[in-house]
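WARN retry 2 of 3 for item q-0093 after timeout on previous attempt; input resubmitted unchanged.
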Amino acid sequence: MIDALVMTLGFEPGPLLSAIASAAAEGFNQGAQILVLTAAFPDERAERAWLELQRIVGMMNLPKELGVRLERREVELSDFVRAVRRVKEVLAPLRDKRIRLSITGGMRALNLAVFTAYLLIDWAHEPRIDVYLEGRGTALTLPSLHRILTLNLTETQRLILSAMREGMAYTSSDLSAHVRKDRSTVYKNLLALQRLGLVAREGNRYRVTELGAMILNSKPPQAVD
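OK item q-0093 returned
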């Protein structure tokens, strides 16, 4: 269930409507907010898109008893640092909520400010981030980049992860031989990597996930005596 959906507005309401429909399918909590971020520059096309969005959302079958609110927040883009601070000001009250961030349109500077602000907030619940593809009506869901960028892997965890090749499955004994650590140490570290989503368990074997492969080169390191 979602407490807030945050979107960026360009010149077309279509991607925002897709994001709202997707969030509604997941479910809104009582008093949920739908926040639309727009550039503060006056622009007739953006204004028309906002009015059309309001009109269509008013016709959508959102549960009225939940009190879901559609609100607009303007972001001044004359200075990037101030833009990020403004977006943080909007997002910070939501840090303890369950939210979705959807890059659905708007100026590149606005989208970059939103993403930068996301990285600078200490979230209680990692937001889901969707980036909508222009003209296709579909979105890419980003991995938990905030968590990835703040990872503090131990040297042993890095050795284990780097020793694993994509498409291959390993037992803790296999990896113990690769990294020259005892099996119990390797096993405990594999469990930690599994909790982070960097490896996946299949029976008594482990595979590196795409997320894990994205972080570290899969070339096996030199074993340490």
